[in-house]
């Protein structure tokens, strides 16, 4: 039951992001189909990895939401929280208790296996 609730929360958050993202129209806007030609399995890879990890640890769903929050609050939603070097958001004191980096790394590794040198970290996040 907890797993279903967590999946519903994650799905609701994703829908909110999509709906809110569509409020702004730009000529150079992001495209959901951007990787359909170069990495057609991208969404499936991400979905399967998230599902696999959530089956083992349902507390990762809120951890991922918190990770997104911390990324977006600092400099905008740019996946800069994933950068791991001295002085980065990830090494900041406020980020020490963040979780979910291992899942993102696992997703990126799988994407890199199937679509080498094609997808950056941001879409996997």
UniProtKB/TrEMBL annotation:
Gene Ontology MF annotations:
heme binding; lactoperoxidase activity; metal ion binding
- Top enzyme category: oxidoreductase
Reaction catalyzed: 2 a phenolic donor + H2O2 = 2 a phenolic radical donor + 2 H2O
Question: Which Cys pairs are S-S linked?
Answer: 39-115, 72-77
- Could you name the active-site residues? 70 (proton acceptor)
Per the record, the coiled-coil ranges are none
Residues the record marks as site: Transition state stabilizer: 66
- Is Repeat there in the keyword field? no
Give one GO biological process term. response to oxidative stress
Q: Which cofactor does it need?
A: heme b; Ca(2+)
The record's cofactor note says: Binds 2 calcium ions per subunit.
Q: Which UniProt keywords apply?
A: Calcium, Disulfide bond, Heme, Iron, Metal-binding, Oxidoreductase, Peroxidase, Signal
User: Looking at the Swiss-Prot or TrEMBL record, what is one Pfam family this protein matches?
Assistant: peroxidase
Residues that coordinate or bind Ca(2+): 71, 74, 76, 78, 80, 89
What the entry lists under InterPro entries is as follows: Haem_peroxidase, Haem_peroxidase_sf, Peroxidase_pln, Peroxidases_AS
Could you tell me which residue ranges the Plant heme peroxidase family profile domain spans? 29-125
EC number, as in UniProt? 1.11.1.7
- The leader peptide range reads 1-21
Its family?
Belongs to the peroxidase family.
Put simply, this protein is called peroxidase
